[in-house]
Amino acid sequence: MAARLVLYTRARCGLCDEMLAVARPVADRFGLDIESVDIDRDSELVRRYNTAIPVLEFDGTEIARYHLDADALERALASAPDT
Fold this sequence. Notes:
By secondary structure, this protein is of the alpha+beta class. It has a single domain, classed as Glutaredoxin. It has 3 helices and 4 strands, in the order E-H-E-H-E-E-H. It has a 4-stranded mixed beta sheet with strand order 2-1-3-4, covered by helices on one side. Helix 1 links the parallel strand 1 (5-9) and strand 2. Helix 1 (14-29) packs across helix 3. The longest helix is centred in the first third of the chain and has 16 residues, at 14-29. The N and C termini lie close together (11 Å).
């Protein structure tokens, strides 16, 4: 299974837009897509995250919450065996 990045977000979330803008160039360098998941479409995700968004996960492991450091993401992706 290919490595994947998932961004938990919701509509009209400025922090979510910022995290995506930081993550996208790093993901592109590693040939990864970012799947954006609107938590408001799933009551379990709303229960889990509600105001704790955005959250970026890499292969099911949380990489960042609220703000993303591009260097930290790059290190996480570079050290992963599947990327």
